Amino acid sequence: MSIFNVFGQEYDAPVLELDELYKRKAGEEITQQMYNFKTKDGYEVALRPEMTPTLARMILKEIKSIVLPVRYVSLALSVKVQAI
To answer: Can you give the pLDDT at residue 41?
Structure first.
């Protein structure tokens, strides 16, 4: 039996997200805790520091087809700057 059968459905998402997503959630100061940069096309992106906004967006997109209660598990890469 795999961990996914015990704890719920597996999900994954891109490791890069628009940093505006995190600014809306946590404010402008969150950018000091993220690895972020501007792409060649001018998009401001960040390495995903957490999965909460990504999971919330996924659930909102699929809300009509989800049978509640639902459990998700992810073993995804998240990157955040921590002061030592």
So the answer is: 94
CA 43 to chain centre: 17
The parent domain of residue 40 ranges over 3-73
**Taking the alpha carbons of 49, 69, 9, 3 in that order, is the dihedral positive or negative?**
positive
Residue 40: predicted pLDDT? 94
- Angle, alpha carbons 44-75-19 (nearest 5°): 10
| 43 falls within a domain | yes
Tens digit of pLDDT for each residue in 26-76?
Answer: 777 777 888 889 999 999 998 888 788 778 888 888 888 877 777 777 777
Identify whether the C-beta of residue 21 lies closer than 8 Å to the C-beta of residue 15: no
- Lookup: tokens for 36: 């972020």
Whether the ω angle into residue 69 lies within 30 degrees of 0, i.e. cis, is yes
Separation between Cα atoms, residue 24 and residue 35, nearest integer Å:
17
